[in-house]
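User: Fold this; tokens only.

Assistant: Input:
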Amino acid sequence: MLMFCVIWSCRAYATQDTRKEAELYVAIYAQAYRAPVDFVRAVIEQESNWQPCAISRKRAVGLMQLMPSTASSLGVTDRCDIRQNVSAGVRRRNFERGFRFPMGTMDAGRR
């Protein structure tokens, strides 16, 4: 019962409405940060299967699987919030001090 409450309160499962919301933010932030929309979609598909509050064994959370320290450094207050997660995920995956980072760097978290 506790697991159900935790999952439900965290909005873990994607619905048609959450998918539409996520697609909207993917388009907005991909354009804003000049990231390929298909790339951002592929990352979300691989990392969370479009589940807004997916939680990994390593404590990464959300569509773009943000680690706690990464989320904090990017100003994210709720890693399950679709807008915040996609915005931070796109920024982190595409830009930091003008460099492009390969896929696995965000998963490792900041040191």
